[in-house]
Specification:
Elements: E1 3-5, H1 8-16, E2 22-27, H2 33-45, E3 48-53, H3 73-82, E4 87-89, H4 93-96, H5 116-119, H6 123-138, E5 142-146, H7 150-162, E6 168-172, H8 192-213, H9 218-230, E7 236-244, E8 255-265, E9 268-278
Parallel strand pairs: 1-4, 2-3, 2-5, 3-4, 5-6
Antiparallel strand pairs: 7-8, 8-9
The structure holds pantoate (PAF).
C-alpha cells in the first residue's frame, strides 16, 4: 500500500513507523517511466521506498515554466503504487517554505555556475536547497537520482560528501524512447515537429560515443558530435555540447569522460548526456 502524506508532521509519524533502510526518490511529479525506473532501483536496494513530489519554485527562473509545469498528482500516485512505493510526501509550498522563500541557500560553488548554471542562474542554489531540506525531512539511507540530470546528480553527490549528509547517493541510467530521446517531464511540451528536432541531442551523443569507440581523440569526438547535432531535423538550437571528465571537471584527454548536451527546441530546453571512454593518447 502507498500512503500519501502532505505535512511534515504526517511525514515524521509515517517515517518513525518504518523499520529497515529507506530509499528516497525526489521528484517534481509528472512521473514517467524514467521515474518508475528510479523507483524500481530504490525498491531493489531499500526496505522502504519514499517518493517526494514537490514543484520547487526556488529552481525556476522568472521566465521559466514554473506556472505551466505539469501537476498530475492523481496519476503520479498511480505510478508510485505500481512501482511499489511505500510513502509519498507531497507538501504544498507553505509546508515546504513556512517562512516564505529561504533567505539562506546552499551555494553549489563553481560547478553550479557552469553548464546548466550558466543558462539558468540560481538553478542549482534552488535544487540543492530543496534537496538538503528533503534529506533533513526524510532522513534516507539511500537517495536515487537519474543520470539524465548529470550535473544535478554530481552536485547532490558532492553536497552529501561536503556536508556530511549520511546518505548514499545512487545514480540511475537514463531511460530512452526507442528512437533515443531521453525521457523528461518536459517532453510533453513538444509538438510532433519539435519532437523530431529533439532527436538531435541523442544523435549527437550517439555519434560522440561511436567516435570514441573507434579510437578518435577528444577533439574529433566533439567534432563528430557537433556534426551529428547539426545534421538533425531543423529546429534545435544548441546551448552547449561539451566533453568533461566524469566529475565534470573540464577537459579530459583520455579515459572515462562525459559528453553533455543542452539545446532549445522551440520554447523547451532539453538536456542529455552519455558516458564515453576516450582512447589513451599515443
Ligand atoms: O530532478 C528533479 O526533479 C528536481 O530537480 C529535484 C531533484 C526533485 C529537486 O526539486
Amino acid at each position: 500500500m502507498t500512503e500519501l502524506v502532505r505535512t511534515r508532521e504526517e511525514l515524521a509519524k509515517a517515517c518513525a513507523a518504518l523499520t529497515g533502510t529507506v530509499g528516497v526518490v525526489m521528484t517534481m511529479g509528472a512521473l514517467h517511466s524514467g521515474h518508475e525506473t528510479l523507483l524500481r532501483a530504490a525498491r531493489e536496494r531499500a526496505d522502504h521506498v519514499l517518493v517526494t513530489i514537490f514543484v520547487n519554485p526556488l529552481q525556476f527562473g522568472p521566465n521559466e515554466d514554473f506556472d505551466r509545469y505539469p501537476r498530475t498528482l492523481a496519476t503520479d500516485l498511480e505510478a508510485c503504487r505500481r512501482a511499489g512505493a511505500d510513502l509519498v510526501f507531497a507538501p504544498d509550498r507553505e509546508e515546504m517554505y513556512p517562512d516564505g522563500e529561504p533567505r539562506v541557500r546552499v551555494n553549489p560553488g563553481l560547478l553550479g555556475e557552469d553548464l546548466e548554471g550558466l543558462s539558468r542562474p540560481g538553478f542549482f542554489h534552488g535544487v540543492l536547497t530543496v534537496v538538503l531540506k528533503l534529506f533533513q525531512l526524510t532522513r534516507p539511507d539511500l537517495a536515487f537520482f537519474g543520470e539524465k540530470d548529470y550535473q544535478q546528480l554530481t552536485l547532490v553527490r558532492r553536497m552529501a560528501r561536503d556536508f556530511d549528509v549520511p546518505v548514499e547517493v545512487v545514480g540511475v541510467p537514463t531511460v530512452r524512447e526507442p528512437d533515443g530521446l531521453a525521457l523528461s517531464s518536459r517532453n510533453r511540451y513538444l509538438s510532433a515537429q519539435e519532437r523530431e528536432a529533439a532527436l538531435s541531442l541523442s544523435a549527437a551523443l550517439r555519434a560522440g560515443v561511436d567516435a570514441a569507440d573507434r579510437g578518435l581523440d577528444a577533439g574529433a569526438v566533439l567534432a563528430e558530435a557537433h556534426r551529428a547535432f547539426g545534421s538533425g531535423a531543423a529546429g534545435a538550437r544548441l546551448d552547449y555540447l561539451v566533453l568533461t571528465d566524469p566529475d565534470l571537471e573540464p577537459g579530459p584527454v583520455a579515459g572515462p569522460a562525459r559528453l553533455l548536451v543542452a539545446a532549445w527546441v522551440g520554447a523547451t530546453r532539453l538536456i542529455d548526456n552519455a558516458a564515453i571512454r576516450l582512447a589513451p593518447r599515443s
